[in-house]
Amino acid sequence: MADTTQATGRGWRAMAEALKSPWAVIAACFAAVAVLDPSNLTNTAAFAGRALLHTSQYILFAVLLLAWLKATGAEVMVARAFEGHEVRMIILAALFGGLAPFCSCEVIPFVAGLLALGAPLAAVMAFWLSSPLIDPPTLIITAGALGWPFAVAKAASAVGLGLLGGFALRAMMRRGAFAAPLREYRSAGCCGCGPRLDGKPVWKFWTEPPRRALFRAEFASNALFLLKWMALAYTLEALLVSYVPAEAIATVVGGEGLIPIILAAFVGMPAYLNSYVAPPLVAGLIDQGMSTGAGLSFMVAGAVSSVPAMAAVWSLVKPRVFAAYLGLGLVGAIAAGVLFQVVA
């Protein structure tokens, strides 16, 4: 009886997980259109399919790049950014934060290792703020959906936000704020795959069978990951364009000036979408009347409030440092939107 009950429980949990997958959401979206507006089903599917096909070249390049970075062990170069003078560490941490090819569960053990080695919290904060915003695959996906000027602006925002957070925290700590900022860290054992902080990258990874196997595994897993999330993103964009009036978008975050950019940041932070889903949706919002500055503010604020990034900060530092992290992220998102609006 107990075995039957446990098997039933596992079956329900497996079903619940399947229903939460992007494929299930996509199927539900098209089923809803088929039932409620059948005449628009073909147009909606065609819109999503064309957009996904257009982005497929960027997805392929992004997957190859990410698999190469992981197979070569390039993450050790990021660890070296946290050696030397504190100011130098903050600058390099902000720069390398946008290049780190880590999965979400690697962020916590990586940063915990840096803190255990004595890396200053200000430098780690610079990495925390810049890392969720951009990485090589996200840069390519953003360029495919929104163009290279927007992608470069997002990358620059990541570095700028890291610098803002790192130096702001350094200044506050020098004035006595955030005394004893760290919690006692205990690894949650998310995946046990935190990157090593020593060693050298092996650029000719194909000479070693284990690294070739890692490349193949990373390519396959990331290809599936990007495909399902991009398919969901373009399905949602198709629904947005079809069923959300442009006037509604323009009323909330449309128009020029500072107010739409501020509103976009406050809307974007709780409405987090991962970095692969966000670009197509922001493209749809811009087509519906959102300004480019508000679009960047929305995307930056949403990335800062990503669940993995917030979990990393919350698990390692005390609540007041966590609040500073969110506050600096919000201010940085608004500043990025204003600067991009002026330049664009």
* Main pleated-sheet profile: none
Structural class, by secondary structure, is mainly alpha
Terminal CA distance: 67 Å
The whole-angstrom Rg is: 21 Å
SSE topology:
Blueprint: H1 2-19, H2 22-36, H3 41-72, H4 75-79, H5 86-97, H6 107-116, H7 121-130, H8 136-146, H9 148-174, H10 209-243, H11 246-253, H12 258-268, H13 278-287, H14 292-304, H15 307-316, H16 319-343
Helix pairs in contact: 2-10, 3-8, 3-10, 5-7, 5-9, 6-15, 7-9, 8-9, 8-13, 9-14, 9-16, 10-13, 12-14, 12-16, 13-14, 14-16
Question: Can you walk through the features of this model?
Answer:
This protein is an all-alpha fold. The chain has one domain (40-178, 195-343). Helix content is 73%, strand content 0%. It has 16 helices and no strands. Helix 3 runs antiparallel to helix 10 and helix 8 (136-146) runs parallel beside helix 13 (278-287).
Short characterization:
By secondary structure, the protein is an all-alpha fold. The chain has 16 helices and no strands.
Core attributes:
344 residues; 16 helices; cell membrane
